[in-house]
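Work Package 4 report. The design task specified in the project plan requires that, given a folded chain encoded as structure tokens, an amino acid be chosen for each position. We show below one input record used in the internal validation round.
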């Protein structure tokens, strides 16, 4: 519970000094789709109503008018284990300022098909001026509207290859926690959506209120990348046999120094054609793919062994300490030592 004491907000024994902001009532529609992740519906509702409480105890009007909206009055999720009651049906929502699309669960194509009747409503509201924010793999439903075509988007790192296959007109921004373009927002994977929600709070209120919320919910407000958590999953959902053969070879010989000429000789394809086909099939250049495979092997070694940085570096085929450290940090967001200290409990 929160209470006001001379413009200082007390919430569950936490004290914040509240900063003046201008309140303009915003209509927020949190979509309740079929095949939804329940937490991705509950968390934005919880955060925004808590911000309202901060405002109320400071003697101000609530900022957000939050409603759960959907195609049905009651939506069952998790194979019927839970049900969510909507505040309004989509056809009853004539105008909204912000649509929040939660993460989906299970097979993405199945989830999109189950919610295809919601797509025209999202597009109509966007055309009428609403902003749209997708959380994690809610980006799949957002992309299905066509609103992301020609734009950039973030989503869960583990679904990026599938997303690219389904929506080639959309540019996936690897590693980003938050992507914003033309009143459309998207977030990285899983709990990364909290950072997008805080970003929206800051946009609609101010920095001080966003910091207050981040402290109350114990969220690192300025985390910008999900690369630390990402695992490289080579794109193999394609039919180019020569490229698949090269990918297998790279993954089995990551400890060696592999050249493009080695690979073109292996698959009997000319270099220029091979490089073009490899990029088209995997969304990585040959060099990028080799580097990502080597770094992924190094990460596993740092996580599960007591080897030092030089030992791991040599194991994955590098001899230049500076080059290895630079590449590792570029891909993971951490230095090799920082990564080992973060994930290896055997390190003393």
């Amino acid at each position: 519970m929160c209470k006001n004491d001379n413009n200082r907000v007390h919430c569950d024994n936490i004290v914040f000094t509240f900063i003046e902001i201008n309140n303009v009532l915003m209509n927020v529609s949190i979509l309740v789709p079929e095949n939804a992740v329940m937490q991705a519906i509950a968390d934005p509702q919880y955060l925004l109503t808590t911000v309202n409480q901060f405002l109320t105890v400071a003697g101000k009007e609530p900022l957000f008018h939050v409603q759960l909206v959907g195609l049905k009055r009651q939506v069952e999720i998790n194979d019927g284990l839970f049900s969510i009651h909507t505040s309004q049906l989509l056809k009853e929502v004539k105008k909204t300022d912000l649509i929040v699309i939660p993460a989906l669960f299970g097979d993405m194509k199945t989830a999109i098909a189950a919610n295809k009747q919601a797509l025209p409503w999202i597009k109509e509201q966007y055309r009428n001026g609403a902003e749209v924010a997708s959380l994690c793999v809610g980006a799949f439903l957002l992309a299905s509207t066509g609103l992301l075509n020609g734009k950039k988007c973030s989503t869960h790192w583990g679904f990026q290859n599938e997303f690219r296959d389904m929506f080639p007109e959309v540019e996936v921004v690897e590693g980003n926690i938050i992507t914003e373009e033309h009143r459309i927002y998207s977030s990285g994977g899983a709990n990364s959506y909290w950072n997008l929600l805080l970003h929206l709070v800051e946009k609609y209120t101010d920095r001080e209120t966003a910091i207050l919320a981040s402290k109350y919910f114990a969220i690192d407000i300025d985390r910008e990348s999900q690369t630390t958590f990402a695992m490289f999953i080579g794109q193999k959902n394609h039919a180019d046999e020569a490229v698949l053969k090269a990918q297998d070879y790279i993954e089995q010989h990551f400890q060696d120094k592999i050249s493009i000429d080695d690979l073109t000789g292996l698959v009997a394809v000319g270099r220029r054609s091979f490089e073009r086909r490899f990029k088209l099939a995997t969304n990585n250049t040959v060099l990028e793919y080799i580097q990502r495979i080597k770094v992924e092997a190094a990460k596993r070694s740092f996580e599960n062994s007591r080897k030092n940085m030089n030992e791991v570096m040599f194991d994955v085929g590098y001899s230049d300490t500076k080059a290895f450290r630079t590449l590792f940090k570029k891909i993971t967001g951490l230095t090799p030592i920082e990564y080992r200290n973060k994930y290896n409990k055997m390190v003393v």
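The first strand starts at residue 2 and ends at 5. Validation will be extended to a larger panel in the next phase.
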